[in-house]
Write a sequence for this structure.
């Protein structure tokens, strides 16, 4: 009997066994779509790496976890899969921690590394911190760069290159987004506001017609 792998088998370079493809994790970055090591060896290597870096061993559920369920190591509860955030980086398609625990970990990381979630958000999305935000707002006189509303809190940036343009209030920032930063759309909106105030005009005793100043007064009907 030959020990060479078949189309349904794969050798593991760690344990040197030829195993079914189901014994390998999926990995879309590899040519064959499978992990380099079998599941058992991959878990052993991961655990050894965690110990070397001083990370506590991964905990496992003490009770069996059924289909459609997942165990959260932080709250130690078994929950439906929908209670776990989705991710494309794991074969299961779900993060290790349930949504409340996942969010709590994110806040803790933001607080530890950046001093708070706002600083983390500003740095991650716009490349500036609260200090740069305050300086830019001071240059604007402490008001929205468009309407002059006080205490604006929203960073406006050019979606084409990511450059920060100014600090805006909620309404102005949302308005630019709805108009897709398109100057022709904004100009069209200004033209529309200036010239399309519809009015009800009497064109005959008891007969009215809606008209706009841009179109002029409707002609009177012939007698």
């Amino acid at each position: 009997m030959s020990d060479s792998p078949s189309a349904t088998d794969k050798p593991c370079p760690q344990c040197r066994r030829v195993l079914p493809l189901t014994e390998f994790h999926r990995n879309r970055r590899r040519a064959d779509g499978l992990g380099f090591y079998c599941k058992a060896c991959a878990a052993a290597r991961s655990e050894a790496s965690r110990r070397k870096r001083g990370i506590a061993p991964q905990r496992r559920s003490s009770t069996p976890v059924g289909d459609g369920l997942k165990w959260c190591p932080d709250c130690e509860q078994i929950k439906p899969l929908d209670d776990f955030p989705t991710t494309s980086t794991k074969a299961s398609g779900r993060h290790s921690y349930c949504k409340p625990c996942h969010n709590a970990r994110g806040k803790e990381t933001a607080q530890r590394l950046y001093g708070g979630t706002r600083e983390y958000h500003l740095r991650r999305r716009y490349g500036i911190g609260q200090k740069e935000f305050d300086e830019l707002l001071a240059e604007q006189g402490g008001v929205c760069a468009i309407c002059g509303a006080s205490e604006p809190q929203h960073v406006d940036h050019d979606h084409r290159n990511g450059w920060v343009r100014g600090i805006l209030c909620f309404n102005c920032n949302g308005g630019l987004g709805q108009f897709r930063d398109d100057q022709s759309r904004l100009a069209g909106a200004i033209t529309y506001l200036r010239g399309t105030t519809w009015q009800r005009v009497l064109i005959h005793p008891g007969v009215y017609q809606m008209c706009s100043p841009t179109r002029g007064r409707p002609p009177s009907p012939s007698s």
Q: What stands out?
A: DSSP finds six helices and ten strands in the chain. The CA atoms of residues 37 and 45 lie 9 Å apart. The domain at 119-181 is CATH 3.40.1800.10 (His-Me finger endonuclease fold).
